[in-house]
Structure formats: structure tokens, C-alpha cells
């Protein structure tokens, strides 16, 4: 590739950013349940299916894209090229549609065919549909935050890092299903007067709070679900790549999420991300 050649990574990021306003607008009238399940056995919202189709069409037609895969479809779309491979959660936290709370779109751009380990990511990021629409994007070890308006994108912060003093925590899964060692760790985090609870039920909203204020988010292994809930390709890897690029850590309980070898496109992974010190303590607690 020469300097003047189109860069498929840039094109994928720009296409997702440009599509965000349309996705946000398209949620109106699509908040109901569809009569279908995703490959993880969850009932899909009409908006999940619609956003997936919109992104599948746009991303798989970009020059250089070899595959499009999504949490909302069982099969990978073969897009014909071989430079980058795109994994998307079109609407993360879509259960929040009913109550009109925050949700997001998550993407990972890999340089290996899917399913791929997080070490094959070359960029990742998320769109957050909050009071305004924002994007956080990691590439080449650096994180940039944008505000999105219509089809446009304005940089609001470059070289974003997690604040040194962690402030917020949010932990998913039903508390009675947490393992005892994880529960004991949570009690320690809660009892620190410097910490406060922030949990909104959409991973991307909760992780964005950690990126903004410092802290920890986890959707851990559960007694009735040993690999937790979140999907490695579509959620775990992209989030881990971005939080690590922002100077934080990710862990599946014992190692960086980026080191987890996938066995299936829809694998789940226990996810813990946040300030290094808190993830180090978590791994020690789960030993
Ligand atoms: P959702 O099912 O609404 O799409 O993986 C998806 C996710 O939301 C995350 O965004 C969120 O953190 C988690 O599931 C919440 O799940 P539960 O409410 O089932 O615990």
C-alpha cells in the first residue's frame, strides 16, 4: 500500500462514524422485539436487525474488507478482499431501547480472518448514543474521542488516557450468581470512599464512564454462565484493545482479553476492564 492508496481501516471507521446519525434516527419506531433470536439465543430488537443490515451493506462493500461479522448473525459475510476483517455489535445494550437509555455500536477491525484473537486487532472503537452522539476510537496505541453531528466528526480529545484516580465501578450479572471471590472483590471496591457506583445496563455506556472517570467495569464469569455474557469478537476484544490503548488493563480473570484464543465466532468471555491497579487486584482476588 502506498501513501495515496485508500486505507480500509480509515474507510471502515469513517463509514461507521457517518452511519451513526442514521442509526440513531432509525431507532425511532424500531424499539419493539423482533420475532427472532441472535446466535447467542437472545431475543433481538427490530433495531438490532435493522442496524446490522445497514452496517453489513456498507462495511462489506468497502475496498479491502475481507469479512463482515456481527453479533446479530450466525454466518460471516465474505466480502471478497483480504486486508481487514470487521466484527461489529451493531447495537450494544439494546435492552435499553425500551426505557430509552444509553446504547452503543461497537466495532473491531482485525488483520486476520475471523474468529481472530484480540492481538490481531488494528483498530477498534465504539459509538455512544447518549444525550449527544460520540465516538471513541483506538488505533496505533492511541485513543481519540469525537463528537458526531449528522455525517460529520469533530475531534474533542486526542491521546485519551484513563484518569489516574479511579472513581466509578459497575458490575453486571445477577449478584446471587457471582462467584464468592468476585463478590469479595466487589465489596472491597465498594467500601473505598473514593469509589462510586455507575451502572446503566449497556456495556458501552458503562465502559465509557470508566474511560471518562477511571475505575472498573466487569461482566464476570457467573455460576450459571462460566464464560459470562459478553462476546469475545464483538465486545470483549474491541473494548479491551481500546482500554489498553488508553493505558488501562483488560482481563478474563487471569490474562489480557487480547490473549484469549477464540474457538468459535460467538464465544463469550468474562470481561474486566479498567485502571491497571484495579485489574491487578482483581486477578489476585480470583487466583
Ligand atoms: P444487551 O443484552 O441489552 O444488548 O451484551 C449485551 C448487553 O446488553 C451489554 O451491553 C450489557 O452490559 C449486558 O448485556 C447486560 O445484560 P443483562 O441485563 O442480561 O445482565
UniProtKB/TrEMBL annotation:
Annotated binding of Mg(2+) 2, by residue: 89, 92, 235
Query: Cofactor(s) for this protein?
Result: Mg(2+)
Q: Which UniProt keywords apply?
A: Carbohydrate metabolism, Cytoplasm, Hydrolase, Magnesium, Metal-binding
Q: Could you list the residue ranges forming a coiled coil in this record? A: none
Residues annotated as binding Mg(2+) 1 are 71, 89, 91
Kindly name one Pfam family recorded for this protein.
Answer: FBPase
**Single annotated GO MF:** magnesium ion binding
Q: Name one GO cellular component term.
A: cytoplasm
- The enzyme class is hydrolase
Compartment(s) of residence: Cytoplasm
- Tell me where in this chain the Fructose-1-6-bisphosphatase class 1 C-terminal domain is found: 163-286
Gene Ontology biological process terms in this record: fructose 1,6-bisphosphate metabolic process; fructose 6-phosphate metabolic process; fructose metabolic process; gluconeogenesis; sucrose biosynthetic process
Catalytic reactions of this protein: beta-D-fructose 1,6-bisphosphate + H2O = beta-D-fructose 6-phosphate + phosphate
Question: What does the UniProt cofactor note say?
Answer: Binds 2 magnesium ions per subunit.
- Please give the family membership noted in the entry: Belongs to the FBPase class 1 family.
Q: What is the name attached to this protein's record?
A: Fructose-1,6-bisphosphatase class 1
Question: Which organism is this entry from?
Answer: Natrinema hispanicum
Amino acid at each position: 500500500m502506498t501513501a495515496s492508496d485508500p486505507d480500509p481501516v480509515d474507510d471502515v471507521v469513517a463509514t461507521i462514524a457517518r452511519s451513526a446519525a442514521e442509526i440513531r434516527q432509525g431507532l425511532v419506531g424500531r424499539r419493539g422485539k423482533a420475532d427472532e433470536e441472535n446466535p447467542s439465543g437472545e431475543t433481538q430488537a427490530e433495531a438490532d436487525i435493522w442496524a446490522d443490515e445497514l452496517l453489513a451493506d456498507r462495511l462489506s462493500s468497502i475496498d479491502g474488507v475481507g469479512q463482515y461479522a456481527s453479533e446479530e448473525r450466525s454466518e460471516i459475510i465474505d466480502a471478497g478482499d483480504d486486508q481487514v476483517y470487521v466484527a461489529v455489535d451493531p447495537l450494544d445494550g439494546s435492552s435499553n431501547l425500551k426505557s430509552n437509555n444509553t446504547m452503543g455500536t461497537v466495532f473491531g477491525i482485525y488483520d486476520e480472518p475471523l474468529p481472530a484473537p484480540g492481538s490481531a486487532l488494528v483498530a477498534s472503537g465504539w459509538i455512544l448514543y447518549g444525550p449527544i452522539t460520540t465516538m471513541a476510537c483506538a488505533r496505533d496505541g492511541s485513543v481519540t474521542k469525537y463528537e458526531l453531528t449528522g455525517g460529520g466528526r469533530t475531534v474533542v480529545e486526542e491521546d485519551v488516557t484513563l484518569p489516574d484516580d479511579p472513581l466509578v465501578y459497575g458490575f453486571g450479572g445477577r449478584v446471587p450468581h457471582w462467584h464468592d471471590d468476585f463478590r469479595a472483590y466487589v465489596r472491597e471496591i465498594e467500601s473505598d470512599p473514593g469509589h462510586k457506583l455507575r451502572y446503566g445496563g449497556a456495556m458501552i455506556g458503562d465502559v465509557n464512564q470508566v474511560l471518562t472517570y477511571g475505575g472498573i467495569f466487569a461482566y464476570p464469569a457467573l455460576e450459571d454462565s462460566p464464560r459470562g455474557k459478553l462476546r469475545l469478537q464483538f465486545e470483549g476484544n474491541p473494548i479491551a484493545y481500546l482500554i489498553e490503548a488508553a493505558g488501562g488493563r483488560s482481563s478474563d480473570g487471569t490474562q489480557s482479553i487480547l490473549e484469549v484464543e477464540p474457538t468459535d465466532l460467538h464465544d463469550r468471555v468474562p470481561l474486566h476492564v479498567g485502571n491497571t491497579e484495579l485489574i491487578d487486584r482483581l486477578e489476585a482476588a480470583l487466583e
